[in-house]
Fold this sequence. Notes:
Elements: E1 3-7, E2 11-15, E3 18-22, E4 34-36, H1 47-52, E5 58-60, H2 62-71, E6 79-81, E7 86-89, E8 92-98, E9 106-110, E10 114-116, E11 138-142, H3 155-173, E12 175-180, H4 185-193, E13 200-202, H5 204-215, E14 223-225, E15 233-238, E16 250-252, E17 264-265, H6 273-283, E18 287-291, H7 295-304, E19 309-311
Bound molecules: zinc ion (ZN).
Zinc ion binds at residues 39, 41, 44, 101, 119.
Amino acid sequence: MSTKIVYSGGIGINIDGKWVLLDPIKMPSFKPDIIIVSHAHRDHYNIRVLNAFPNVPLILSNETYSLIARSNKLRSEDIIKTEESYMEVNSISLEFFDANHILGSRQILINGEIVYTGDICLEKRIIFKPPEILKAEILIIEATYGNPLYIFPERKILYRQLLKKVIKDYFDRGKAVVYARSPGVAQELIKLFSKLRVSIYAHRTVYAHTQIYTENGCEITQYKIIDSSSEEGIYIYPIWMGKNDIGNGIFVTGWAAVEKDERFIPLSSHSGLNMLLAYVNTSNPQKIYTVYGYARNFSAILKQQGYDAESLW
Ligand SMILES: [Zn+2]
C-alpha cells in the first residue's frame, strides 16, 4: 500500500491513488474520492466544500449530521450516516470510534493502520465515556493543546472549583453567568449543574444543541431557553458572547489555563498535552502527523522523545 499524507484544505490521505479528505475547511488541491467529517465544529467543516463534490461519498455520524444540518443546507446525495462502526467505501475500509469530544465526534481507523483522532478528550467526563486509544502504524493526532502551558488539572477538581464559583455567584447575585463552547462543554455543564436543583437557562443556540443531544440519547434534563420570563438561576451562553462580560461571567475553556483570573476555569473537551502524549505512547505508531493548534510544538516534543513526527499544520 502506498500512502501519502498532506494538508490541503483539510487532511488529505492518498492511498494507492485514491484521496480521502478529512475535515475540509477550504477547497483541496485534489479531487477527493471520500470525504469524512469527524465532528460538527465549524473549524472542521466548510459547507461549501462538502456540497462541492455531490457524487463523492460524504461520511459522518448521525449526530454530526443532525448538528450540521440544523443550521446548514447539506446536499442530499451520497451522504453516508455512520450508524455502524465499520464500512468499506471505494475499496477503503473505515472504522469509527467515539472521541469523547462533542456529541457524534469520532476517531477514524483507515485500512486498519492509519488513525485520525479528530478532536479528542481522553478524560472521564460527566457526559460520554472515555475513548479507546487506537493502535496505529500512522497516527494523525490533533494538537490543539500540544504545549506544556496546557496541562489541565484533574477534571473532578475543575468540576468542584466551577460548582463553588457558580453557587457563590448564585447566592450573591441570584444569577450565575457561564460562558462555554457549544456544542461541547456547554452541554457537559448543563448536566453538571442539574445536580444543584436551581433553574438552568440556556441561550437559544446552546438550547438547540442540547435538544439534539437529548434526541440522540444523552441524558440532560432541567434546562430552559432564556426568555423575558427567565428569573434566578444559572445562565449558559456560547463562549463567543462573553467578551464584554469579563470580570462578571465565568469562562470555561481550555484556553483559560494561561489566565490568572479565577473566573477562568480550564475545563476542555480537548486533551491537554499530557493526555496527548499518553495517546501517542499507547498507540505507539511508526509515524506521527500533528495537526491544529500547537501542531509544531507538539511534533517537536514528540521528536525529542524519539518519535518520527511532523506537523501538517
Ligand atoms: Zn472540535
